[in-house]
Task: structure prediction
Amino acid sequence: MTTYKIGIDLGGTKTEALLLDSRDRQVHRKRVSTPRRDGYEAILELVSWLVRETASRVPGQTPYTVGIGIPGSINTETRLVQNANTTCLIGRPLKTDLEKLLGRRVGMTNDANCFTLAESRCGAAQGYGFVFGIIMGTGCGGSLCINGKVRTGGNAIAGEWGHVCVDPRGARCYCGNRGCVETKISGSGVEAAFLEKYGRSLTMRKIVQGFRSRDKECSDLFCQFLDDFGRCLGGLISVLDPDAVVLGGGLSNIDELYSLGVERVRHYVFHQNITTPVLKNSLGDSAGVFGAAWIGEEG
Result:
């Protein structure tokens, strides 16, 4: 039976909807701003409206699935949102509430899972069996995709690389621990480190530009960022030994990650001649919404 697929990518600043036909061809796409100050109810209303608006474009009585990527995960026991960067979602029954509002089942998973699934199926990591996907932006997340299937784990936290503690004396993370990977190699983490060390605010973009123009302060922080990237990813590869790593998020556009950063990975990984490719995504910020649509098929 022909089935259409609706994908919703719920992000911190934007939320995107996508409709795919039975052959995964794009039929409709819409992007809107995510409510940032109105809390849980506003997000619930937005997502349910986007699903209905997109479903109205499904022809006739054609069946369709719904998949939603969120900046967190669903606790397997309580069915409540956990570990969400959009903190108003934490402890809320988002999946249950949406299913009640829509009168149908929805698939829901972490946005990093959606990203990695999409890049594995039709992006930069296509053709690799075991892919570890990393989103490096305001925060830092990760996901595992094995032979085209996302591995979520018994606690729905598989791939949560961003909250591995690598520095017990490091900066406090929103999760409650100190020195998480996210505090070291996310945009917000590097910016906070710059402010702490030099007493002035500078965006990640300006820090990268300063490094390229040989500003000493920017160079010092950026080199530390590259070393932290190498240490964190080198340790990850030593544990998982994936066939490929694919990077997404705003920081994935930093070219130096694929040269100087990979050199640091080689320094820290437990292998003399590592061959693991570290790939830049090819789908850009489209990956999440495509992955969400395919997640809906899996439930």
Remarks:
- The mean pLDDT is 93.
- The two ends are 17 Å apart (CA to CA).
